[in-house]
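Two quick folds needed for the group meeting slides. Do the first one here.
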Amino acid sequence: MAGIPEDLKGRNYTRVSDWSRQELELALDLADELKQERARRKELRVLPGRTLGMIFHKPSTRTRVAFEVGIAELGGMALYLPAADLQLARGESYRDTALVLSRFVSALLIRTFEQAEVDEFAEYASIPVINGLTDLAHPLQALADAMTIRERHGGLEGVKLTYLGDGNNVCHSLMRLAARFGMHFTAACPAGYEPLPSVVEAARADAAESGGSVRVTNDPLEGADGADVLYTDVWTSMGQDAEREQRLLDLERFSLDGELVSMASREAVAMHCLPAHVGEEIAEDVLYGPRSLVWEQAENRLHTQKAVLALVVR
């Protein structure tokens, strides 16, 4: 593997818009290379002795495991830090925690509720801060999604990507990344579940420069029509359990099933960032069928997260 450039060393990755299209493309290219080298069982220990601190306010499977495995394969180690076990739980400020942990670890990953918490850590930490998911954004997932789509299509520009369901954090980050790369992105969401207007506006500005497009519709059939990629996510995210029954009713028409797949292009694929609830946001025959890229998508979390670490950790 060629020497890793210094351009992104010390930088944060708290939202897709932190990085330019060229920087995101660099991460995707590096992820491709890391995936190939791993398949050859070649060790690329580019972060010897480095430590990643991982603060979790929410449960995690793919983010946590991919980072623990990933930094180990790069020669470093991860520290799992449940927020309830830190002094954060007893009122220590984010600022003080960031200042202290910056003296101990090489980078910080944070999975929490409010984007403002990640932003505060990034403001005061002297090491890179990575967003492992907030209620606003999931930039790590978007990077893995882009890698997966690029593997299938050979590129991203011009690909028609439709997101179905709740216009949530995953939708926000996917939209921002798609717009940066000249994709044609559609968010098909019920009324009241659309992505934030501020995110849509920013994505449309990017799309105007890249040659892509961004649209929002309340009709799932219209959204699926001609799509190259159909994408969905859980209907009830962490912290929304009290709303579950109402959400199931409101989102029922947006389930990724055979009818919606039939509306898409002949070679359309299905994606889901997991965990999946079969029979709700996705049908069993779609999740496990020949059109599914879900498991490649999950694997690519490892390669893209390794790429982010290799690029930002000094």
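Then this one, please, same format:
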Amino acid sequence: MVRRKDRRRPWYRTRAYRLARTALIVAVLATLVRCGGHAPTAPDQAGQAGAPRPLPRSPATTLRVPSLKIDAPVVGMRLGADGHLGTPPLDKPKLVGWYQDGPTPGEKGTAVAVGHRDTLTGPAVFAALAQVARGSHIEARRADGRTAVYTVDRVKVFDKSTFPDKEVYGPSRRPELRVLTCGGLFNRKTGYTSNVVVFAHLTATR
């Protein structure tokens, strides 16, 4: 009769080791999926891969969202007497307003651009803004001829009565962009009930 050996299996053949190895592989793959959803960032000014260097100050002149076929001129906007950022004139629905006292395209901090969803004459520049997909590019051309390219991180719709100012307009250590327009339901007396906000960060300059 053949007797079964009592010698233990090597550690690398044990069930506990196989389970631990599988868990580690799954964790690594999950990290790669979370971090790999965007296209690689363009090289910075020094030719090294990674986040581009912030640009010096220069006003915005044009805003493009290629995926939505938006290519619009930009006008500088300031805060009104009520402390709210103004919007472009209603008779110029294709204009984009850029908060000119904040960061310019590619500058460090949170830049803000606004535009109408529609006017009395029909759809305006940001009629389809809520449809922009995560990973899409937003290109802001500057007065000095350079272009700041932002990548969309997320799109949110906030009720105007509970609008999170800090989340939307709060400071950032890197160059970021917020693009806003109206959303939600429309009331003839009070206007739209919500705001569409696109959150994006700088991923290339050219």
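Slide caption for protein two: The domain at 60-205 is CATH 2.40.260.10 (Sortase; Chain: A;).
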